[in-house]
Amino acid sequence: MDRNDELFERAQRSIPGGVNSPVRAFRSVGGSPRFMQKASGPFMWDVTGKKYIDYILSWGPMILGHGNPEVLRAVHEACDRGLTFGTATEPEILIAEEIRKLVPSIETVRLASSGTEAGMSAIRLACGFTGRSKVIKFEGCYHGHSDRLLVKAGSGMLTFGHPSSAGIPAGVTADTIVLEYNNPQQLEDTFRSCGSEIACVIVEAVGGNMNMVKGSPEFIHAIRDLCTRYGAVMIVDEVMTGFRVALGGAQSVYGVKPDLTMLGKVVGGGMPVSAFGGRRDIMNMVAPLGPVYQAGTLSGNPVAVAAGLATLKLVQAPGFYDRLTSISRRLTEGLTEAARSEGVPFCADYCGGMFGLYFLPKVPTRFSEVTRADTAAFGRWFHHMLDAGCYFAPSTYEAGFVSIAHTDKEISHTIEAAREAFAALKAG
Ligand code: PMP
After folding, report:
1. Which cofactor does it need (predicted)?
2. Residues of the chain with CATH 3.40.640.10
């Protein structure tokens, strides 16, 4: 029994499942989760001192790699000035201005502390603005764990085989319509039957919670057109994709202008910051300007905002996203080639600094295809890679991430380890 096993046993006595967020628990791949003690650049070290190349990056935020010195300096300086005031502060204006500049569909923006809050608030706002109550979401998309959105919501719940959570009264989700991702016809039919009751459509334009599944341009533009035609609010959830797939997020990749956008992860640079923002006329409905209530003791926290602001400055370096994309490309092409040469059915895809690995013959376009992945093969591959010091997400329903700190050396090591892992799978 190593120290990870010991800590996991001890953790389970005081913490449900030993973890503070379910997908950390290695449930679908088996074994003890690794307890990390430190991280630097593209690496993390667990409590036994074992070093890993990190392809989770705290589930997205650490786009600069861990421990970026400029981010740390900004955080330390902010700490020295005070941890929280619960008042307005100047850095909140600076980050709001930066967000508006980088994501032009956002005219004004409200900060919160988690993607869940951003999603919950955005749909409340859409309902308040339109005076309607129906919300359309798509199967396999996750928008946080607020009650109305926790239906067929991807990753964590899929990993544990529950499409939706217990404990949510049926009435709460009665107005949540769940449709198939990448199916514009079904969306159009739904609008035709009840379009005047639909407050909003919420979507991950590049899905990252059913592994990575890209929205087709027709699908994303159909959402825009139908929302405009029927007076519904289009919400693009960029908690994962914002400043990750491109500087302007997924909306810049598709050339689509949502009415509201949710941000999280990278926007906080590793600290708890999220945001929702968009059209000024809609945002003016939020308290104190309007009747839609939303609040937070630590919203716009100065230490968290300092990390976010420093991160947003650094991702604007010339060529940043070209480099990030080429890292994802090298990794996914190398893994695909390694699997092909070993004769294992596997494919991969990427978008900016985000990627998907699929134990499937072809890249999936919707949730039902993702569910066909060979989870047993993935579990064995995952553990082989973990032993070889490559830390991927412990589920076939999660996307992966690279940072600008990942160099050719780490990518080559990963591809070589993967070649052995695929060979071991083949050998049975
Ligand atoms: N939306 C998306 C697209 C996400 O990926 C996540 C988190 N993985 C959330 C919302 C929820 O964010 P948080 O975990 O910060 O509540």
Report:
1. pyridoxal 5'-phosphate
2. 69-314
Q: Which tops the pLDDT comparison, 222 or 427?
A: 222
**Per-residue pLDDT tens digits for 143-190:** 999 999 988 776 555 555 555 788 888 888 889 999 999 999 999 999
Average pLDDT over residues 4-30: 95
In the reported structure, the alpha carbon of residue 240 is separated from the centroid of ligand 1 by a whole-number distance in angstroms of 7
ipTM over 0.85: yes
Residues 138/178, Cβ–Cβ less than 8 Å? yes
Q: Is the CB of 243 under 6 A from ligand 1?
A: no
pLDDT at 158: 55
- Per-residue pLDDT reduced to its tens digit, 311-332: 999 999 999 999 999 999 999 9
Q: Is 147 a catalytic residue?
A: no
Query: What's the CATH code, domain 3-63+317-427?
Result: 3.90.1150.10
Q: Structure pTM?
A: 0.97
Contacts of 420 (CB under 8 A, 6+ apart): 384, 388
CA 191–ligand 1 middle distance (angstroms): 27
Identify the active-site residue in 52, 55, 142, 391: 142
Model pLDDT, residue 159: 56
DSSP secondary structure of 352-411:
TTEEEEESSSS--SSHHHHTTS-HHHHHHHHHHHHHTTEE--SSTT--EE--TT--HHHH
Ranges of CATH 3.90.1150.10 domains, the chain: 3-63+317-427
**Residue 165 confidence (pLDDT):** 83
Contact 228, 261 (CB under 8 A): no
d(C-alpha 121, C-alpha 300), whole Å: 15
Q: Which of 52, 55, 134, 237 is labelled catalytic? A: 237
Ligand 1 atom closest to the CA of 272, numbered from 1: 15
Centre of ligand 1 to C-alpha 246, Å, is 18
**Third-level CATH fold of 69-314:** Aspartate Aminotransferase; domain 2 (3.40.640)
